[in-house]
Recover the amino acids of this structure.
């Protein structure tokens, strides 16, 4: 049994290394002193690409579009998803079953089919594709994730604190904003963080709803054949570092709060 | 994540019957307009005839489905085969990891889960392209092995079904580990001890107690991986060749390159139907309800 445990431990680490290997390759080649655009063979170590991250205008524009879309999508799906999540966690109402079904469908339908069907809708309505249609699509697939996270928090909420507030003379409105909302806020934030991550990384749905607009993943996709410039590695590394820092920070804060 | 099994405590805030509807309205409308309506539009378009210039007319033309499936049956079958192989490999690779973290992870459990999710901070497309760099014919891995004489000069990985399936498994592994882990983590260690006390060996305890209790997690993992893996077109496009073309690539090209909307819509619907049938057949074969009742007892 003990030897089996040690074997499994080693195996787990092999899998983790395998999962992270491409990330290390991406980071490493951001420091590669490559001559042209072809960044496939190791030449030497340099920091210069970090100084020239924003040298490629189209790539920079694509990154800006991605970030803006992700921020808007995060805020909108955060608001709409919180409404659904709170209602599902707190109230019993007609249509909640259908709503659950649609949410499950948006989370499990193939992205390809969701993107393709949005394209057919936009085409048949004669809507021009671009930043707006991308954002509409991202909000659509993010809402359910936010709602699920918020609902889980609302369901486990200790109702006695709300009752205490009511006993102390607070009306429903005050109780919600002063007691309930602060309690579910961390869940709202983690749902929004998830929405941001889903949006900035999305390729498949975006590919169908973008038209000629180019986001960061779409730019990478388009440049694959001619070779990715080191700037892509640098941007990828920065996004990775930011994501890890934010995730660790939220985790540590949550742990401190649960301890204190 | 979702926890439908927990009983809901209600009865406190019953004032204002309209409140839940007002809360749900904006988000629900968004999902209706941009998820349900597009699906209906696509279904309708798949039965229309015409072209993008002169417009389409609804003709109830089911023949499009027959033609599309006959024309692209090899890609459709290949996608399902790749999806099935990748899903089986995912279960085999993910189970031991989930098992070790759930039973031996101790205080470090969150750290291990975090490490498994670390790749998600890098774009899916970028990670897949990274594999292309790693596996390229004269790159730093294969090139070095070839220089050392360990591999023949003609050896290659890119462009083979192996590369595509490996890429799919790589990209979706955490989606299999997590649900299996959640199921294993819920197992009361005393149940396993009881089995051992009743003279079950380690293998028998695993086969008769741990594995059946983990099956709902495996099922959830299959749900989360089989559909996206079978409909993927990034891995095959980046790591494969013309002999590994998957149905997702066909659909993407029909929509975005050829603008043959009826054929593309018919293929999308056919793909979704086949995947749903596959998932339901799997659910029936596995009898998840039985598993659940056994677990509840």
């Amino acid at each position: 049994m003990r030897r089996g445990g040690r074997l499994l431990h080693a195996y787990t680490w092999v899998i983790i290394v395998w999962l992270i290997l491409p990330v290390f390759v991406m980071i490493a080649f951001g420091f590669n002193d490559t001559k042209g655009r072809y960044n496939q063979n190791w030449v030497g170590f340099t920091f210069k690409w970090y100084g020239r991250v924003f040298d490629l205008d189209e790539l920079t524009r694509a990154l800006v579009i991605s970030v803006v879309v992700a921020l808007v999508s995060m805020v909108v799906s955060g608001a709409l998803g919180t409404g659904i999540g709170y209602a599902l966690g707190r109230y019993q109402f007609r249509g909640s079953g259908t709503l659950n079904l649609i949410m499950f469908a948006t989370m499990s339908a193939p992205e390809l089919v969701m993107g393709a069907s949005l394209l057919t809708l936009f085409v048949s309505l004669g809507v021009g594709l671009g930043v707006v249609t991308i954002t509409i699509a991202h909000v659509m697939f993010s809402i359910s994730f936010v709602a699920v996270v918020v609902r889980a928090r609302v369901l486990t909420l200790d109702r006695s604190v709300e009752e205490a507030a009511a006993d102390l003379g607070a009306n429903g409105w005050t109780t919600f904003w002063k007691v309930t909302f602060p309690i579910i806020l961390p869940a709202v934030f983690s749902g929004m963080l998830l929405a941001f991550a889903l949006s900035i990384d999305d390729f498949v749905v975006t590919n169908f709803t973008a038209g000629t607009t180019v986001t960061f993943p779409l730019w990478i996709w388009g440049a694959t054949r001619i070779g990715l410039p080191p700037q892509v590695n640098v941007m990828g590394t920065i996004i990775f570092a930011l994501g890890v820092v934010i995730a660790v920070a939220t985790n540590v804060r949550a742990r401190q709060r649960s301890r204190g | 994540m979702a926890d439908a099994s927990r009983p809901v405590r209600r009865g406190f805030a019953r004032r204002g019957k309209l409140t839940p509807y007002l809360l749900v309205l904006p988000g629900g409308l968004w999902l209706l307009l941009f998820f349900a309506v597009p699906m209906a539009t696509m279904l309708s378009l798949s039965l229309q005839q015409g072209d993008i210039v002169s417009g389409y007319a609804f003709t109830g033309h089911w023949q499009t489905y027959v033609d599309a499936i006959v024309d692209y049956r090899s890609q459709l079958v290949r996608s399902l085969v790749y999806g099935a192989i990748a899903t089986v490999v995912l279960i085999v690779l993910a189970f031991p990891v989930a098992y070790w973290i759930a039973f031996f992870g101790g205080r470090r459990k969150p750290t291990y889960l975090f490490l498994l999710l670390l790749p998600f901070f890098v774009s899916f497309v970028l990670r897949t392209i990274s594999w292309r760099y790693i596996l390229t014919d004269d790159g730093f891995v294969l090139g070095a092995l070839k220089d050392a004489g360990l591999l023949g000069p003609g050896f290659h990985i890119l462009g083979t079904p192996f590369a595509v399936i490996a890429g799919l498994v790589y990209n979706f592994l955490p989606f299999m580990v997590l649900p299996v882990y959640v199921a294993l983590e819920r197992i009361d260690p005393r149940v396993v001890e009881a089995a051992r006390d009743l003279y079950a060996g380690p293998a028998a305890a695993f086969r008769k107690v741990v594995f059946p209790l983990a099956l709902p997690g495996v099922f959830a993992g299959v749900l989360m991986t089989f559909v996206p893996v079978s409909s993927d077109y990034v891995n095959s496009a980046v790591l494969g060749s013309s002999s590994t073309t998957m149905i997702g690539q066909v659909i993407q090209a029909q929509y975005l390159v050829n603008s043959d909307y009826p054929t593309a819509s018919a293929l999308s619907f056919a793909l979704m139907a086949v995947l749903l049938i596959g998932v339901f057949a799997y659910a029936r074969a596995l009898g998840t309800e039985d598993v659940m009742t056994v677990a509840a007892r």
